[in-house]
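I wish you would study the pair of lines that follows with an eye to the fold:

===
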Amino acid sequence: MSLRHKDFLLLWLSNLCNASAVWFQQITIPWVVWEISGSPFLVGLAAGMRSIPFLVIGPMAGVLADRVDRRKMVLVTQSVMAMVVLVFAGAVQLGVVVGTLGVIYALAFSFITGTLHSLIQPVRQAMVANTVPREDLWNAVALNSIAGNVARVVGPGLGGVLIAWLGPALNFFLEGILYVLMVLVMIPIALPYREAITARRASMMANLKQGFAYVLSEQVVLRLLLVACISDILLAPVIHLMPVIATEVLGQGPKVYGFLVLATGVGGIISTISFASLGGVFRRGSVGLLALMFLSASAILLGFSTWVWVSLAAMFCFGFFRLAFKINNNTLVQTTIPDALRGRVMSIYHLDHGLTPLASMTLGLIAEFWPANFVVALVGVISLALTIYAFIAYSDMRRMS
């Protein structure tokens, strides 16, 4: 059990705080923009504003992760994040974030926090492998996913209720407090399983090229990243259409919106607990691809549903199978790549954090002209077709264990 390692336990607690804070923002920003504008496109744009930093800064952040003290980099960046969020919370509380200017402020806030997240996301992922020995990595990745999904339960469930009862400002204050707690938990962490830093022997541009060259030359790593795009670029943006699904398709309000995302988190927690317990007792490549097929089918079910309980069941399955796939894929990548390249490869792996919001913006634009449930069903069908192709064509990935 990876939690017996003190440094991983502290990292896990900090990741729980960080993920909870992120979910408070992810559920609240779309609702704030939806209330101000009533536009599905602007709801998607609010998520899309986080994309540019991840696409531009993300790869260079991976280079930094292989060149500098990963722990100090996270501490400084998260401290700045806490200050930015608390300032925005104050603006919402004072009634500044309203009207057209309110939309602009919300978009700017998404862009700034996206920039800060893009700096540390590959670093945080690399630190998981630096706090446990290799034999505990599978369990550590699964438990790290549990932290994200506990947050997925707490954030949307509590956040949706707080929006309805007390307004959105409180969610942003809670987000800022969680970032402060995360910094405090990070202070005593050490990274005993980090290998000696060798990237400084070359320039940053040379480091960047080396990372991309490794991904392109290692066929199985490249395929793992390509398959991840189905989940992270095609299917993940579905969550950002939940305000539209809740109101226009199901005819409900913020509470049902919160419970829809809550169902995703519950499914994810059950999935991660199951996978953390099972360990590597099965052929992970095949299981991951099968999970991706069921994930696609869950999106199709959500797209056809006009009943709240069916939609909740679809979102539960969505969370369960998405995490089953992500745990498999992430572990396979982490155990394949060398630590000297870990930051750079994980920054490429997490380019989805930039592409997912762009896809969310695209889906939001499409939903301006077509019904949101039709858009969700269409995405599910395309994803299912691509996954079946990958299952047939990528035999080397299927055989990975």
The chain has a mean pLDDT of 80. Residues 2-187+204-398 form a domain with the Growth Hormone; Chain: A; fold (CATH 1.20.1250.20).
